[in-house]
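User: quick one
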Amino acid sequence: MLGISIFMNTSMEEVIAFKCCALPDQNLEIHLHNSGTETIVVTSRFVLDNGPKPLTITAVYPPGGIKLAPGQTAAIYTSMDERVWAQYRSISFEEQGGRLHNFAINTNTG
Amino acid sequence: MATGIRDKVAIIGMGCTRFGERWDVGGEELLVEAFEEAVADAGIEKKDIQAAWFGTCLEEINVGKSGLPLSTSLRLPNIPVTRTENYCATGTEAFRGAVYAVASGAYDICLAQGLEKLKDTGYGGLPNPGSNGGTLPWQWWPNLTAPGSFAQLASAYGAKYKRSDAQIKDAMSHISAKSHANGAKNPKAHLRKVVSKDQIKASPIIAHPLGLFDCCGVSDGSACAIVTTPEIAKKLGKKDIISVKALQLALSSGSEMAFDDWDGDHFVTTSICSKRAYAEAGITNPREEISMMEVHDCFSITELVTYEDLHISPRGKAIDDILSGFYDADGGLPCQIDGGLKCFGHPIGASGLRMLYEMYLQRQGKAGERQLKDPKLGLTHNLGGFPFMNVCAISIVGKLDA
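Assistant: Done. Structure below.
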């Protein structure tokens, strides 16, 4: 079971730009949490939906998939225009193997 | 019979630039920025400075060799300027040169200044020294990375004291969150945002168990100190004079690298250096007598282990002290009260003097939002190199004759 926490305009942005080899504007931080009993690998991409048109975000750091042991939390970061983000109501992640995890977002806005 | 440095030298002025990606200025301007603050603080004129020590480590990046970058940038009037380099202890080494010169009686007033300008490389970490690393070190350090070697320190510590990865990670996260909370209150810090323990724990792993927030970055910056004798300081009208209580160095003999009985879980040099420093300063119980510290938090595990090597936390118990808040701003012995390397980054030549700058401000009640209540003795600690072979520098400063 995958859970997520979202941090728009994260305080991490400055740190990622500072320490991580010129990766600026990583203003969106998403924590992925594996509450299941088996290790999963989430691909380093996500899809925004229930908005103008589905938007696939592939420029995600770190790349190459996020391996999560049971109970483990790991963060991904990307650049995201707040105005674009606000237009969407769902976000989905995909495990290696094809299992999809869909979450509601921006439910308190608009 | 040597009597040490205690109360023989006073600090009468200090300056420190804002640290960060200073693309707005060159190294020369950074030197001037820190120096002008120090001279104004000291209440002297440039011509009163009789000799200077200039600390820079990676001179091939922006700065240049010799003492000339300092003498020409500051237009020092043909005085002796000595360039120092001793890895991450470079800034404290410059301070040591100036302090010993005054203590010897050779000069009345001396300057110590450190500078590093590393961000212009566009690379996130320290540059590879290449052939400048020395022939023998490269044989000892094949394929070495700093995060990798310090990560092994965490593994060895956990194995020795039966501490799980989760316990070590929790303590390291506390260390980093504490430093970022402190740095958020410092206008001269590079990074000034509060970061939660959850964010720190979730950040990408650099070298297990060290994550992004367990590793300091590099930066641009300069810091300096003007020192003289206590007698001259009094003649200049200085009140509550801050003096040097101890100034010690300890360098590896090579025995750790040769794997004698060193088990990889601590710093031999820091353990030795701190004992010498306490003896020089007349300190018998550092946990009770030291009021504040700036230690070398290049990696969070370094800070954790250093608490024990400084003989403040008992062996194997630093995690308990950290999680109890003992080293927090409102704890028993605040550490990295200015934000430390985590928030300032590590412009190597400047870091030791930047640490002293915070002790100096705190002692005078000039630390603004970060001000501690009546701190007495401040300790700074630098560690250059790797766990198995390094340079350790420790200074202790406090009120003259107290």
